[in-house]
Design brief:
About 15% of the residues lie in helices and about 40% in strands. The protein is α+β, with helices and mostly antiparallel strands. It folds into three domains: about 120 residues, Immunoglobulins (Immunoglobulin-like, Sandwich), CATH 2.60.40; about 100 residues, Immunoglobulins (Immunoglobulin-like), CATH 2.60.40.10; about 100 residues, Immunoglobulins (Immunoglobulin-like), CATH 2.60.40.10. Strands 3, 4, 6, 7 and 8 form a five-stranded antiparallel sheet that branches. A five-stranded mixed sheet has the order 13-14-10-9-17, with no helix packed on it. A four-stranded antiparallel sheet has the order 12-11-15-16, with no helix packed on it. The protein starts with a helix and ends in a 6-residue tail after the last helix. The structure holds 2-acetamido-2-deoxy-beta-D-glucopyranose (3 copies). One 2-acetamido-2-deoxy-beta-D-glucopyranose (NAG) binds next to loops.
Length: about 375
């Protein structure tokens, strides 16, 4: 109680002092009018548009800026845009409602040297719901193979009616109108995926996708996706993997980036080594993740069979994420001891030659015996 009284006694004169100047001649500005969220049917690309505030319509001396905030319902952060225009477009997830708000900002001489903000004008948008929830596709997955073709797959909805037929539509900036998939993947008479080619110009853009469909007379609930295909790349495995061992028993590994559409400078590699004494299931040890296409393992450590495998993935200079390629693998036998090895080699070569000698000798003797037989005169009958 006493504390409260003290606080008011000390702080309220300060508050009065600090705010007296501005509150006396409070500048104000009206909010923008008629904010609308417009859906031009591009599967998630929406426009937000508004009209200037009433009080400013007549006068043009004051430069006005609009502060626009928007998000999908459920997102914690707003996207914030400052613009002098009356329209702004962006991509939204149409599975969820969209909300936006805009206010007028007045700066500079018109605002008496400070910044004046209006109240917010709000708007929201949601596609009309259609179809039963359980009719939506499930497990939608896309992989962009070798920077060349996008393959998306899905499973039919849990309670999709028997005659359900799903269709995929897509759009990206630069594609005039939306397009339907031209190359569906079929499983047991149903579309369960789509392959898209020629997306080079969309590699660094958003691609908006909708998978909807119908099962006459019912409609299936559409699903919407926004893809950044540069983050969905699966490159082919590295090529020309070569292993060699130096005199000091270092294992030198070398490979090259895969041919095809993958930009070589966009790859990073993981190199693994498996050393085993005859066990095929020995563990792989991860040795390195790197940008270079060569690596040296310090020592073969006396294991007999060593295998090296390498795989590639898009690196952070080209994308935020990506899928690993399949592995490329090579194995080789590590000589146990050089002296012993040479001894075995010499022994093998020597025994090989002695076998040949024995055969040659035997053949030769047989020939001579036959020749001798032929020379004998016939003994009658
Ligand atoms: C502008 O600011 C000055 C000093 O801060 C003040 O005297 C004047 O009344 C203000 N004018 C308006 C229109 O607020
Ligand atoms: C699916 O969406 C596309 C694009 O919006 C539309 O043209 C088509 O009529 C829709 N199909 C169904 C069955 O709703
Ligand atoms: C050999 O052993 C050393 C130490 O035990 C280890 O650091 C090294 O990675 C091993 N090299 C290979 C090729 O397994």
């Amino acid at each position: 109680m006493e504390m409260g009284v003290w606080w008011i006694a000390v702080v309220s004169p300060l508050l009065l002092w600090c705010c007296e100047g501005s509150s006396a001649h409070q500048l104000s500005v009206d909010p923008p009018q008629d904010l609308q969220i417009v859906d031009p049917g591009l599967l998630g690309h929406l426009y937000m548009q508004w009209k200037p505030p009433l009080s400013l319509e007549a006068s043009h001396q004051c430069p006005v800026t609009y502060k626009l905030k928007y998000r999908n319902a459920g997102d914690t952060d707003w996207k914030v845009i400052f613009t002098k225009k009356l329209k702004y477009g962006d991509n939204f997830d149409l599975n969820r409602p969209v909300e936006a708000k805009v206010q007028t900002l007045l700066e500079g001489p018109c605002a008496n040297g400070s910044e004046v903000q209006s109240e917010w004008t709000h708007a929201s948008f949601q596609l009309p719901l259609q179809g039963a929830l359980e009719s939506r596709i499930q497990d939608f997955r896309c992989v962009y193979y070798n920077w060349e073709h996008l393959r998306c797959t899905w499973q039919p909805g849990r309670q999709a009616p028997p005659g359900a037929r799903y269709e995929l539509y897509y759009w990206y900036a630069g594609l005039g109108d939306l397009a339907q998939c031209a190359d569906y993947i079929w499983t047991r008479g149903k579309t369960t995926g789509c392959q898209l080619l020629n997306l080079r110009q969309a590699e660094y853009l958003d691609i908006n996708i909708c998978v909807n469909g119908s099962a006459e007379p019912a409609q299936l609930q559409p699903s919407y996706f926004i893809l950044q295909i540069k983050n969905l790349v699966k490159p082919p495995p590295p090529e020309r993997l070569a292993l060699s061992m130096s005199a000091s028993k270092e294992i030198h590994v070398q490979w090259s980036s895969p041919e095809g559409g993958t930009p070589a400078e966009c790859l990073e590699y993981e190199v693994q080594l498996q050393g085993s004494d005859g066990h095929a299931d020995a563990a792989w040890s991860s040795a390195s993740t790197q940008l270079e296409t060569a690596f040296v393992f310090s020592q073969a450590n006396g294991t007999r069979l060593s295998c090296v495998r390498v795989r590639g993935r898009t690196n952070i200079f080209c994308a935020d994420q990506g899928f690993w390629s399949d592995w490329t693998q090579e194995c080789f036998y590590v000589p146990r001891e050089d002296g012993k090895q040479l001894f075995i080699l010499v022994a093998v070569v020597l025994s090989f030659f002695s076998v040949i000698l024995v055969i040659v000798f035997a053949v030769h003797r047989k020939k001579r015996a036959l020749a001798a037989k032929k020379l004998q005169p016939p003994t009658g009958c």
